Amino acid sequence: MTATADVHPTELEQERSVGLIRDALQRMLRNRSAIVGLVLIAIFLAVAALAPFLAPYDPTRGDLLQSFKPPSAQHFFGTDLQGRDQFSRIVFGARISLTIALLSVSIGLTIGLLIGAVSGYFRGWVDSALMRVVDILLSIPGLLFAIAVVAWLGRGIPQIAVAIAVVNVPIFARILRGSLLALRDTDYVTAARSVGVRGPSLLIRHMLPNALGPLIVQATLSLATAIIDAAALGFLGLGPPDPSTPEWGTMLADTYPYLRDAAYLAFFPGMAIVLSVLGFNLLGDGLREALDPRLRR
Amino acid sequence: MLKFIVRRLLLLIPILLGLTLLLFVFIHLLPGDPALAILGERATPQNYARVRAALGLDQPLYAQYLSYMGGILHFDLGHSFITNRDVVNDFLQRFPATLELSIAAMIFAVSAGIPLGMWSAKHRGTWMDGLGTVGSLIGISIPIFFLGLMLKYVFAIQLHILPDSGRLDLATYGSIPRVTNFLLIDTLLAGSLGGFWSALRHLILPALALGTIPLAIIMRITRASVVEVLNEDYVRTARAKGLPGRVVDGRHVLRNALLPVITVIGLQTGLLFGGAILTETIFAWGGVGRWLYDAMTTRDYQVIQSGVLMLALIFVLVNLVVDVGYALLNPRIRYS
């Protein structure tokens, strides 16, 4: 104790926060489900990045002579009504789903972070007002809300991302506010305050880094729900405006009338959604365990 | 306790006021003009002005909002711009279908989720727990519409053991008078056991599809909560004083572990209403989900505005009931 007594408090804290991140990383890498999740996500990211090299056919152009071919060596996942190769479409579809997911969570996280930080830091009437708005937003079923936003903004990948982001904003805001409120009375915040740290510096340098854990977990899980929501919008006919776009949910909706004879057309896009979503859910779970101090015993 | 309930009820007022304002502003930001949509090719300037006046769209926005709020206080939520039918009537006619489906899904989710979570927790660390954890994660990761399609493919198309869509067999469809619009109840009221059986069979696949995600979530929360309670001193004491395992599990573990589970069950209602849109689409189930979706794609402002408002109202009321139930079960909440 005496050896560290004369160290400046911020130095101590920085050292501890590096330790915290390294500790969390190590614990996450020891977590089997997190590893499986990471591998799944890495596969989907690689597929999205390398789509033009991996896809054997053009995802939007079909050959009518080849329509409704079951899975084979030529067409791994079969072909659809217009003779388009399902495998190529699913490979390119990874780009669309991951883009929407990353975009929507980034937007939602940024706005949610701002609202949550303002609310949790200032408290008082600002907090009350913001949290009532959050309550209102949370009282509308998420998918209905997203449908309404797409109806308002029009169809398109950025619009879909914004619609899903809007659903996420109140969730992020609520979580960050909760963590900040819990931190306000901790000893180290009181200590920082007592040595004169005030305002944005207290919030950004001392409180936020310690409040981010639950938010990171939620962001990972939100990536999973964003993929599902994007596919749900596509399934309901609110996907990207060009009907030949290889969006997973739209693909499922297109194959719906042929379920009796060509169930493989529904199976493969569905499995692509399940596996990518499972990847983010596994990682989110692993992160939660790694970041939760109560599980550190 | 009464004070707690009254305070929670009073808190609902600003939320609902805010919600009406938000919906109103939002709806008027939607592109497209309902008067033009109704008139289509018959839109002469005179016709256009007449229809706008009939819909009240020629009034300033604040006047439109006030007249809308005035209507709400008289339980008049307006008429559909497209069908001119009363929105409240349409909602009440369809809502039982959605509610019947949601209740069935929730019964499935709770009756399977709590025992599975408890079982997983009691075997924590073993391969059985691992299996449960992975299974519940997969349950959360399957989109409702994909699960619905697969259930339909396997049980209706391949095995022919369950109907693939609708709420009743065509043969019985016309013969059941609609009293409550809950078909399980209406068929019984009509004394038609065959109809009841048919309604029940039609309910199974949609309920499984809609209930799987809540099932997985309830299972995970139950597991986490039971694991925490199992470590408590009072559980050890109960075992040490020689109570049979069954009594400890029921009276000491489950009772304390269920508190967070109840909250989650309440929060799932919102998810169910959202999921109902997808389930109702796949299984041609005539509920509010599909009705609202159709309203959004046809820009039927009045239906969207009022339908979402009613769903949100039900959602906040369910959560209020859950909160009150929570306070009843856990006296510590009431005083904070």
Detailed description of the structure:
In chain A, 73% of the residues lie in helices and 0% in strands. Chain A is built from eleven helices and no strands. The longest helix of chain A has 37 residues, at 86-122. Chain B is globular, with a radius of gyration of 24 Å. Chain B is mainly alpha-helical. In chain B, helix 6 crosses helix 10, helix 10 crosses helix 12 and helix 12 packs parallel to helix 13 (288-297). Chains A and B meet through helix 5, helix 6, helix 9 and helix 11 of A and helix 1, helix 6, helix 7, helix 12 and helix 13 of B.
Question: Can you summarize this structure?
Answer:
By secondary structure, chain A is an all-alpha fold.
Summarize the main sheet of chain B: none
Q: Helicity of chain B, in percent?
A: over 70%
> What percentage of amino acids of chain A are in beta strands?
under 5%
**Major sheet of chain A, described briefly?**
none
Q: Assembly state here?
A: heterodimer
Q: What are the key terms here?
A:
heterodimer, A: 297 residues, mainly alpha, 0% strand, B: 336 residues, 78% helix
Would you spell out the secondary-structure blueprint of this structure?
The complex is a heterodimer of chains A (297) and B (336).
Chain A: H1 9-29, H2 32-49, H3 51-54, H4 86-122, H5 124-138, H6 142-153, H7 157-184, H8 187-194, H9 199-235, H10 248-255, H11 264-291
Chain B: H1 2-29, H2 34-39, H3 45-55, H4 61-73, H5 87-122, H6 127-141, H7 144-158, H8 170-173, H9 183-189, H10 193-230, H11 233-240, H12 245-282, H13 288-297, H14 301-329, H15 331-334
